[in-house]
Amino acid sequence: MTIKASTGLRDAMLGTVGFQGALADGVLEIYSGAQPSNADAAPTGTLLARITLDGGAFAHGSPTNGLEWDAPSNGTIQKPVADNWQGVGLALGTAGWGRFKGNPADNDGSSTTLARVDYSVGKTSGDIRLPNINIDIGDPVSVNDASMQLPISK
User: Is 90 exceeded by the pLDDT of residue 102?
Assistant: First the structure.
């Protein structure tokens, strides 16, 4: 697993906002290639798909079609089973990683204040699992599973 939380998300998690609040009504973007070195950095690769609720139109600053996370359980938070996280292929390529961004405007530049989390993407493994990692323009892209677990200490 290759989950990378931005400084803005880590600050929210340590404060009163929390993971769910910082990423409420967000959007997931799927990119080709390798993840950037950290989630504060600008994205790398080609934007292949933008995932929203039911594939609907998304605009930062509006909750419409934004994605939500399920209630945490046993140190894990995940995509709600009943929610349809879907998008459409924007470019041709192989999914390599994804970035979940909170609802505030994000111009995809470097930022230490925006809540973002980067994930590995795969078909049978990875933090985000897609039915098909080969994406083409206009093809539907859906997310089977997405989750994040905080480490346990005993």
Answer: yes
Tokens at 85, concatenated: 């996280």
Surface-to-core class of residue 1, CB atoms within 10 Å of its CB (0-12 exposed, 13-18 middle, 19+ buried): exposed
Answer yes or no: is pLDDT of 1 > 60.
no
> How far is the C-alpha of 42 from the C-alpha of 45, rounded, in Å?
10
- Residue 83, both tokens: 């929610």
Residue 77: partners with Cβ closer than 8 Å, 6 or more residues away: 19, 20, 69, 70, 71, 147, 148, 149
Q: How far apart are CA 141 and CA 49, in angstroms?
A: 7
Task: Name the residue with tokens 């880590």.
Answer: 10
Which of 27, 38, 28 is CA-nearest to residue 2?
38
C-alpha distances out from residue 107 to 15, 42, 98, 99, 103, Å: 24, 9, 16, 13, 12
pTM above 0.90, yes or no: yes
Q: CA-CA distance, 142 to 132, in Å (whole number)?
A: 9
